[in-house]
Amino acid sequence: MRRTHCLATFIIVALFPINGAAQSIKAQSELSPDAYIARRGGTLVPAGRLEIDDHRMTCGESPTVLDPNEKDFGSAPPGFLILNPDLFAGLATSVKLWIFSHECAHQTVGSDEVKADCVAVQRGRREGWLTPAGLEQICEFMRPAREDQKHFNGVHRCELMRQCFQETRGPPSR
Hints:
By secondary structure, the chain is of the alpha+beta class. The chain is built from seven helices and seven strands. The chain folds into two domains: 7-88, no CATH class; 93-166, no CATH class. Helix 5 packs across helix 7 (154-166).
C-alpha cells in the first residue's frame, strides 16, 4: 500500500532559489543537489532550514532534497541528503530524526553503516530528542530489516545502537 504524499511532516522554514548557493556547496561528487533535482525531481531545502516535527535539523552545510520518488527513507550522496517524505508519514518522531541523523552522519563517516547508526544515536542523546523509549521505537522500526552487504540485520543493528546510546566515546568499528 502506497502512503499518501505528506510534506506536512516537514516544515520548510524558508524556501528560496538556490542559484549560487548550490554552487558554493563543495560536493565531493559530480552530482549536486541541482543536478539531482533536474534529473529526478524533488524540493530543495537549504542547509539549516529543515524542520521535522518541530525539530530544526541541520547537517553542517549540507542541504536536503525532499524526493517522494526516493526508493528508501533516505540516502546521502556526498554534499547533501535525500529524504522521502512519503515514507516518513506515520513514523514516530524519534525514528524520523534518527533517519535524518543517520544520513547526515554519512557526510562525516563515509559509508560505514555501524558508525552512522552510532553517530545518529549519540547525536539524538546529546541533543535531547532521543530517550530510551525513543531508542526502542527505532529498534522496533529496525527489527524487520534484513542483513545485506552494507548492513547488519535490524536486531544486531539495534544491539549496537543500544551500546552507542550508553557510550560517551566514539562509535565502534565494524
